Amino acid sequence: MTSTPTTARRSKITPEREQEFFDAVLEQLREHGYEALTMEGVAARASCGKSTLYRQWKTKPQLVAAALRANRQGTLVTVDTGTLAGDLREAARIAACTSGRDTRLMQALGHAVLSDAELQAALREALVEPELAAFAVMVERAVARGEITADHPAVEFLPAQLMGVLRIRPVLEGRDADAGYLLRFVEAAVLPSLGLTPPGTPGPTGTP
Fold it and tell me: Mind giving me the DSSP string for the chain?
């Protein structure tokens, strides 16, 4: 019963105007962190009424999650190279496109990610679950092609490996996880863990 009015309201905001809202959110998030970010502050920066934001996104966590999702460049959903190794390399390239910006924004969220249940749920829905689903599809295709078995023990850790290395390199080395770094990680750690020997690498018997 309520879906039609909501749709009508949302249709009044152009993609360009919506991006202005998201830019205001990200600017405030980078400058002040999540706790200090307010709907009032975003509205003032975007020159709109606070009610406009609440009609569209209902809560601050939902607005922040939507802004972070819009900030992403590329998506794993469209990746399909024909092999699992190729898919994982392409996933690494996509992740590298926004690794620096995404890492800094996640750091700006601070401990709120762990302490705010509503924020956790919004981020999982907007950012995490779509990527987990994309990894699952990659694995399903690989199993169907006979590249790996469905019960391969390393499959469980694929998302944690690729998502984790994005966050930890800035902490360990003070540098973003760029494409070269992520591709080396995939070749040296991810593919071998799946039993997918990179091209040109000697196999167990010492032969290529």
Answer: --HHHHHHHHHTS-HHHHHHHHHHHHHHHHHH-TTT--HHHHHHHHTS-HHHHHHHHSSHHHHHHHHHHHH--S-GGG---SSHHHHHHHHHHHHHHTHHHHHHHHHHHTTHHHH-HHHHHHHIIIIIHHHHHHHHHHHHHHHHHTSS-TT-TTGGGHHHHHHHHHHHHHHHHSS---HHHHHHHIIIIIHHHTT-PPTT---TTS--
